[in-house]
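Q: For a teaching handout, I want to show students what a protein-ligand complex looks like in token form. Below are the inputs, and the small molecule is calcium ion. Please produce the holo structure.
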Amino acid sequence: QVPRTGGPSTLAFPELTHQLAQTDSVAEGHEVQVVMRWGDAVLAGAPAFDPARQTPDAQARQFGQNNDFLAFMPLPRGSNGSDHGLLWVNHEYCSTGSMFPGLPAGNSAIRAAKTELQARTEMMAHGGSVVEIQRKDGKWAPVPGGAMNRRITASTPMRISGPAAGHERMKTSADPNGTQVLGMLNNCAGGTTPWGTVLTCEENFNTYFGGEAARTGAQAAAYRRYGIQPASPNAWERFELRFNLDREPNEPNRFGWVVEIDPFDPNSTPIKRTALGRFKHEGCTQAMAPDGRVVFYMGDDEMNDYVYRFVTARPFNRENPAANRDLLDEGTLSVARLEDDGKLVWMPLVFGEGPLTAANNFASQADVLIETRRAADLLGATPMDRPEDVEANPVNGRVYVMLTNNARRAADRLNAANPRPRNIHGHVVEIIPPGAGTPRVDHAANEARWEMFLMAGKPGIDAGARYHRATSENGWLSCPDNCTFDSKGRIWIATDGAPSAAGVADAVYAADTSGAGRGLTRLFYQTVVGAEVCGPCFTPDDTTLFLAIQHPAEGSSYENPSTRWPDFDPALPARSSVIAIVKKGGGAVGS
Ligand code: FEO
Ligand code: CA
Ligand code: CA
Ligand code: CA
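A: Here is the structure, written as tokens, with calcium ion included.
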């Protein structure tokens, strides 16, 4: 019998009780504020949200759909303030069935019924937003007419840089040089850089491209490794030729990258940094090596895909910001092998080394990067249970890998870091670089150690679930996806998929990462039916936790939604929204 609350945790909030409901809930003593909703004005002149009459033009000036990664960038730039800043927001994808009125039920029927106006509205609902926000009298709200506000969409011009820029396989009829692309797609999680830019990561880009070439084209095998099918789930190839593989076979090679954006300059051109590899990027989070080189950790969110790391060739230059501008174009991309004895080896993906040669049809580093997954297969990387966020804890120096689940993990393909067959609840692995726990953590070292942090699922019910022994009946979780750390180094884990895997709402759990409460997860916030929780992000002073609530009411129809959160207005659908959680009366969240 586990206790309802308590245990040796430094987190003082009273735990919630698991539920799955039309409304959300947060630990007593805290308050949820809705900051931005799908359809709210971002740019000057944006019309009021009218869900029955959505247009591409309106959506291009309004907050996009399905917010995911969040970054709070204090204003003025470079300051450490916690009451005023820019909020960077990813808009990952569209929940078509609950976005537009009048659509039939079922994905293939929706695909067939989708109109050009709807598809083009969806294109404008993708990408990202920059929104200036401010806290006044304890309430967070957008600053009207924020001068740096911006919308990035599926048609924003972007530059391609790094080793794959200009390669034959990056050229299209609209871009014969292979260096310019329109838009970014399916940007899931992300990260920031020490020089103050945002990294936003293209994940399931395969779902936007279709054509017979997926079966028969010269690049069919490469398409297949990324899941591109003849008929795309989004059906955009019916309306825009570049999404049709039979017309533009190279267009998909221009997606699946990490995109760097300067949120403080609304006229800056976003840059796809090809040196960081092409896969279904979840996030891209920073750490610093002792010699000043910057290290970025990345997950490839697919069952049995890999964990990656990029180390810049040159160190970060604190004194001369211009020297950091193209730091992401040169460096070493590596993929992880997690050995059963607890050793982790970072294996460089470098053209000409090992199997990455002409013998395996690689003619350059560009080839290695465009087909990062195949290169990593050849190196013998460890197939993981869907790597989502991979983030370094700035206090203890360990790196936390969210492995969300893997129903296809076969019983005869287990390894010590992915030890559970048919792993529907996921787990969290800790990477321990040399020097972790000291001021000199070597995130750039070629080897590290790894440990299991927790195995998700309900203790006593789900085989293999493993937690701190004082975990309460509400403190267990399912499907870890994104994570962040407060300034004390405690981990805050957001989940995606708990309703179907475990019958409870997706939620946020917090735990100590050291001391007697290490790994003792506690239920802090739970969201509404149909939604997942994304983008956990603290202000520098820990007094606000921002969350992106994505796809509320997903799985139900526009006409008959399972919730109308957050407005509960019969004229409005459920709306993906960014919320701010604060402690009533002030103070650190969770304290
Ligand atoms: Fe878009 Fe990996 O979640
Ligand atoms: Ca998602
Ligand atoms: Ca995610
Ligand atoms: Ca996910």
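A: Two things your students might notice: Residues 188-189, 282, 388, 481-482, 496, 534 surround calcium ion (ligand 3) (CB under 6 Å). The chain has a mean pLDDT of 97.
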